[in-house]
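Annotated sample (chain length 188).
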Amino acid sequence: MEQKVEHVKITKDMTIAAVVAKYPSCIETLMGFGVHCVGCHASYDETIEQGFMGHGMTEEEVDQAVAKLNGVVEESLSTSKEFFTVTEKAASKLKELMKAHNKEDYGLRIDVIPGGCSGFSYDFDFQKQAMPDDVVVEEKGVKLFINKEHEDFFKGSVLEYVDSFQGAGFRIKNNNVKSTCGCGTSFN
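Output written by the structure step:
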């Protein structure tokens, strides 16, 4: 009899801090389950189980939530092999913003610029069309323009939209980044 081995990435005894640090793609899902202590220091060292049960979940619901978090991790890992991906939430928010600014036929330019306390930061702007030296990523109904000079830097990156108590905005999950500043707006 062949035994199926599952590679569990997140367990209910992991702390919220460990999950967020290792798998930032889970932030939206955690917040969707009512765990808004992501990023705050009040309950950051609670386990996933303590956090969920503290928000009224049963053990069965905690197990289901952990399974969903692991699904998010699997999806994130499978997309990280591609050049650049866009989450559904980011694509939806981009379309909403482009419509509000009468720029539905535009794309999002993403540049790496010097600045911030860690050396570099991202710059986002709407742009009508690609420049001659751009890589164009078309995914989920949106276009991204990235200068070919930065192509290697962005390999495996994911554009996410995060909406939390600490603020809302687009975020790039980039495994090529060596370190970030304390506020998370610049990187090295």
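Annotation: Residues 80 and 129 are 26 Å apart (CA to CA).
Annotation: Residues 84-173 form a domain with the Hypothetical Protein Aq_1857; Chain: A; fold (CATH 2.60.300.12).
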